[in-house]
Each structure stands twice: as structure tokens, then as C-alpha cells.
Amino acid sequence: MAFITLDSQKLAENYQRLDELFQEKNIQWAVVSKMLCGHRLYLEELIKLGAKQLCDSRLSNLKMIKSISEEVETIYIKPPPQEIIPEIVQYADISFNTEIESIRLLSEEAARQNKLHKVIIMIEMGELREGVMREEFMDFYEQVFKLPNIQVVGIGTNLTCMYGVLPSQDKLIQLCLYEQLVEAKFNREIPLVSGGSSVTIPLIFQNLLPAGINHFRVGETLYLGTDVYNNRTYERMHQDVFKLYAQIIELNEKPLVPDGNMGLNLKGEAVTFKDELRQKTAVRAIIDLGLLDVDEAHLQLADPKQKMLGASSDMVVIDLGTNEDGLGVGDLIEFKLDYMAILRIMNSKYIEKRLAPA
């Protein structure tokens, strides 16, 4: 069977590295936990590290977090669907918002539950995903401030996630200016300017982060040690917190080129082969993993001698060459994973989740 492992020690070392960086700059940070897909074992390891805020975009994951620790502050990091407003108020201490009608419903529900619900209002800064348009921003805040049982605790923006618009010093200065305008016009304190994410971290090292940015939401860099802005990895951070293993379920020497009339494969592709491969063979391993679990384009074999030949819904075929390592049926093939691979695998109920051996 296939399984993914989380290395608690490496995760702890990545967390410590980031925590030291943010503490040095007096920045509050929240861990984005959505990649863990609400898996209790992994969330428990994350909470053990001392994370004070966890962000997620799925209500069921916030429920799981609260079942582990009531003390962790939970943040729902997308505009809430109106039909689940009661559960948002119950399980999310803070929510990101862009629609005044949704905030009105949050206000009414918070009153029913005798709670004060906190909101961060997202502003559109060019990524064209969620965010109030800048020309409407002041009027939007004025309406929100009139609502009972709602506390505005921040202004935020999202960049990079959809179109890849990179954060810049100029954009983040604009975000800080909007926070100052709101405070000046309405005489209200806005504690958090949430302009940071994994892609914004390099601006800290370049001394380009505006002083007003005091809140980050970080996921990918914590789990993968990646410098998202420059598409590389940070020194002294681990890229292999997660590893994937799949068992060999068939092992045979077979031709490299299929035999028969060729049509389209499962993915709608017409596969072609070089003439020089005809009459050649290789040891081929079929493993217990498939497209139902992960897109093979986001996997990398840990052993450079091995090569992925293709995938179907439930199986991946690996070229072992001459199989010089003497692998057999029942042995494991190891993979390195990128962000999208981990996200898909964590969401697969068919892949077992384990902790790496200490």
C-alpha cells in the first residue's frame, strides 16, 4: 500500500527557523494548515510546536483543530459561504471577508451565539482573487463598523495564489496606507496588517518589507522550506518534511514500446515512442498509487536511477532499468513531493498518513 510520512523533527526545525525570523521583526504569524486536510495526527504535531493561530479554508478542518485545542485561534481564510455562517461563528475566531451582506449575517449569528466575531477585511491589490475594490474600501469599512458583535481586527490582501502577482514593496506600502486611512477617518485601531505569506518572506531578508506589515500567513515555506518568490529553497530549512512511499505490486522485464494500434490514453493523450526504443526492454515496477491520488507531474523519484513511465487511475509504472538494487514485489518506492502533490495526497482517503520514525 502507499503511505505518506511527516517528519516531526524536521517540521519542528522549520517552524523554529520561521518563528525566530518573525519574532526578530516583531511580526505575528499564523500557520496555514489547509494542506494537512484536517488530519488529526498531523494537526496535533503542528499544535505541539506552539502555533498560536491556524488558518484554514475548510470548516471541517477548523472543527478538528478546535477539538484538539480550544486555545488555538482559528482563522477562516476565504469569504464564508452564507449557508455555513452559524458554524463559521462557532468554529472560527476570525474570518476573512469581502462581502458586506455576509458580515451582516455574521453579526446576527454572533449575537445569537453571544459572541464577538473578529473579521479581517481583504482588499484587492491586483491579484483579482478575493478583495474589496480600493475605491469602495472606505465606505465598506464604515458599514462594517456599525454592525454589532463584529470586531474588525485587520486589513489583508492576497497575492500570487491565482495569477502569480508578486508582492512588492510598493503594493505593501499601499496596504499600510489604507490601514492608516481607516484608523484616521474612523478613529479605530486596526491591529493587524496581514500582507505576508510564504511568497513575501524574501522581502524581509532584502529589508524591503514595510514596517506596517505585522501579520503573515505561512504554509508552503514551513512544510517545504521553499523561497516561493525566487523558486528555490532556503538554507537551513528542510524540503523533505513529507515523503511518499508506494509498494511494488508487480515486477517484470517488459518491452519499452507498446504493441498494437495506438489511441488516446486515460488522460486523452496520444503517446508516441522513439524508434530506437523498439526491441529494448527494462525492468518495470507497477506501484500501488494512481492519478486518483496524485498527479504524477508533481512527484519526483528519490532514486535518480528510476524513471516514471506513466500512470493510470490506480497504478504508476516505474522503469528500474536493470534493477541493480534487486528490488522485488513488496518493496517500497520513495518519492519527493511538491506542494500540490502533498495537497492531493493528503486529501486522498486511500493513502495512509504516518509519522516518520524518530
From TrEMBL:
<dbReference type="Pfam" id="PF01168">
    <property type="entry name" value="Ala_racemase_N"/>
</dbReference>
<dbReference type="InterPro" id="IPR001608">
    <property type="entry name" value="Ala_racemase_N"/>
</dbReference>
<dbReference type="GO" id="GO:0005829">
    <property type="term" value="C:cytosol"/>
</dbReference>
<dbReference type="GO" id="GO:0008784">
    <property type="term" value="F:alanine racemase activity"/>
</dbReference>
<protein>
    <submittedName>
        <fullName>Amino acid racemase</fullName>
    </submittedName>
</protein>
<keyword id="KW-0413">Isomerase</keyword>
<keyword id="KW-0663">Pyridoxal phosphate</keyword>
<feature type="domain" description="Alanine racemase N-terminal">
    <location>
        <begin position="7"/>
        <end position="225"/>
    </location>
</feature>
<dbReference type="GO" id="GO:0030170">
    <property type="term" value="F:pyridoxal phosphate binding"/>
</dbReference>
<dbReference type="InterPro" id="IPR000821">
    <property type="entry name" value="Ala_racemase"/>
</dbReference>
<dbReference type="InterPro" id="IPR029066">
    <property type="entry name" value="PLP-binding_barrel"/>
</dbReference>
